[in-house]
Amino acid sequence: GAVVSQHPSRVICKSGTSVKIECRSLDFQATTMFWYRQFPKQSLMLMATSNEGSKATYEQGVEKDKFLINHASLTLSTLTVTSAHPEDSSFYICSAQGRDYGYTFGSGTRLTVV
Amino acid sequence: AQTVTQSQPEMSVQEAETVTLSCTYDTSESDYYLFWYKQPPSRQMILVIRQEAYKQQNATENRFSVNFQKAAKSFSLKISDSQLGDAAMYFCAYRSLMEYGNKLVFGAGTILRVKS
């Protein structure tokens, strides 16, 4: 079945630095990529939607200059958290939508900013 | 905008018993998809079942089945013969066929505990 590889699974960074999270669709073309943020025991909060070759569409309240999303190819999308602060610590999940309109989720990235 | 409501923050079920998780949604659209996702402690999202709104027949996947009541905008998940591996957080989700991007709208989730 469809697989999305998300890396890293865990990352600890210092406050003020930037962190890049990658999501790769391994056996299908991801026409659309969704990025979510999830706090413990809470639901997934959509941050942004990106289509290959286009600028991402951010949800209301999400800082686009802080959370940079790149979807340069049909198999790779990245989320860069710039100038990270402790409040950015969270679990980030990507979800890729292929041409069959199914959704495949990455395994998530636990970001801790110290 | 569409909303999805899961009114049960937590549920418990005895192993081998049956449990039903509730989900209601609000939409003015007539055609859409509904999903149930499972998120175990690993936090990997796993598709449990999917229902197309135009299909009257309730979807079934092995021990998992749904009760889709379109007029009532209700989409409950029944888990039969519960197993320890069913313990997870379950999310109900809605997908419009009209909105650009086809994003999923998730409910708040229900934590399911399975007792041995």
Global Rg of chain B = 14 Å
Q: What's the main sheet of chain A like?
A: 7 strands, mixed
Oligomer: heterodimer
Strand segment tally of chain B: 12
Radius of gyration of chain A: 13 Å
- Strand % of chain A is over 45%
> Helix count of chain A?
0
Describe the structure.
The complex is a heterodimer of chains A (114) and B (116). In chain A, a hairpin with a 5-residue loop joins strand 9 and strand 10 (103-105). Chain A starts with a strand and ends with a strand. Chain A is mostly beta strands and 114 residues long. Chain A is globular. Chain A has strands at residues 4-7, 10-13, 19-25, 32-38, 44-51, 57-58, 67-73, 76-81, 90-97, 103-105, 109-113. The model of chain A has no long low-confidence stretch (mean pLDDT 93). In chain A, strands 2, 4, 5, 6, 9, 10 and 11 form a seven-stranded mixed beta sheet that branches. In chain A, strands 1-3-8-7 form a four-stranded antiparallel beta sheet, with no helix packed on it. Chain A contains no helices and eleven strands. In chain B, the strands form three sheets. In chain B, strands 2, 5, 6, 10, 11 and 12 form a six-stranded mixed beta sheet that branches. In chain B, strands 3-9-8-7 form a four-stranded antiparallel beta sheet, with no helix packed on it. Chain B has strands spanning 3-5, 10-14, 19-21, 24-26, 32-39, 46-52, 60-61, 64-69, 74-79, 88-96, 104-106, 110-115. In chain B, strand 7 (60-61) and strand 8 form a beta hairpin. In chain B, 32% of the residues are buried. Chain B has no helices and twelve strands. The model of chain B has no long low-confidence stretch (mean pLDDT 94). With 116 residues, chain B is mostly beta strands. Helices cover 0% and strands 53% of the residues of chain B.
